[in-house]
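DUF1468 domain-containing protein
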Amino acid sequence: MDTKQKDFTISLVLTLLGIYTTVEGIRIYLKAARPPYGITNLSISPGLLPILLGALLFILSLTLFFQSLKDSSISKRFLLLFGWFKQAVKNTDIRMMVGGMAIMAVYAFFIIGKVPYYVSSPIFLIALMLFLRASTIVKSIIISIAAVGLVILLFQFGFNVSLP
């Protein structure tokens, strides 16, 4: 993949991220404007920074998008991108990376907060190590329990910080 194609691809991703961040910033502002907060002034709202950063990211990524189209067309760039995706689906390393990210997403968005930390974190670590074939089942269990135990010991008891 050449530099212009990489710029094209990342500009698409960053454009979507900029839109998402801006919309979420507006959502934060609207939530803060309702009772009990009643913050109707945007300049002191917690949604100001996400709105500004999201809009800036959107503008800059659109600039990168149009620069990546010099000496090419949108259709050519999309054809190259889809060709790369076809090759990427067959690549074992990329599939392992996406699977690992899926396990992390399930842990971060669905498990944390619903299951106690001392239960959810060893399950996550064991699942990730087994998926990546990092170790045997017994070693994965021992390493996970030891790691989570040390984190609990250090942060909850050593630094007196509450864990999720």
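thats it. Residues 3-33 form the longest helix (31 residues). DSSP finds six helices and no strands in the chain. bye
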